[in-house]
């Protein structure tokens, strides 16, 4: 889902799959926490390559079918799920989200030099506070997923 050129990615899936093979894909659901977090990150990261699509496009059954069908792959089943993360604070959650996003970590030196690294963390903490559910002394961040089979 993170390949910039979705057409090439779909073509590669078809190329490497044996005849009659089943391909399973998992992606973040459009509009869920992580794709929405991308809107926050856009202000800090370089723009995506021209012609690329959002990674959550792979979580939209109609969009996925339109990417796969030209390569003789067909969508046969879909399901959705939820990964639930628990944090003691919005700061802990923001730190985790940054640490596990290679494309963000790779920009740390530049953002630090521009005095924007702390601003990014602040915006992510605020985002977590808006999106997280409260459960006792924890913040619960639900991450919705989509699974597809061809």
Descriptive keywords:
alpha+beta; 150 residues; Rossmann fold
Give a summary of the structure in a few sentences.
The protein has 150 residues and is an alpha+beta fold. It has helices at residues 6-16, 33-41, 61-68, 90-99, 102-105, 108-113, 117-131, and strands spanning 24-28, 77-87, 133-135, 138-149.
Compute the number of helices.
7
Distance between the termini: 15 Å
Calculate Rg over CA atoms.
17 Å
Q: In the CATH classification, which architecture applies?
A: 3-Layer(aba) Sandwich
Shape: globular
Tell me what the structure shows.
- This protein has 150 residues and is an alpha+beta fold.
- It has a single domain, classed as Rossmann fold (3-Layer(aba) Sandwich), CATH 3.40.50.
- The protein has 7 helices and 4 strands, in the order H-E-H-H-E-H-H-H-H-E-E.
- Strands 1, 2, 3 and 4 form a 4-stranded antiparallel beta sheet that branches.
- Helix 4 packs across helix 7.
- The two termini are 15 Å apart.
- The mean pLDDT is 90.
How are the SSEs ordered, and which strands pair?
Blueprint: H1 6-16, E1 24-28, H2 33-41, H3 61-68, E2 77-87, H4 90-99, H5 102-105, H6 108-113, H7 117-131, E3 133-135, E4 138-149
Antiparallel strand pairs: 1-4, 2-4, 3-4
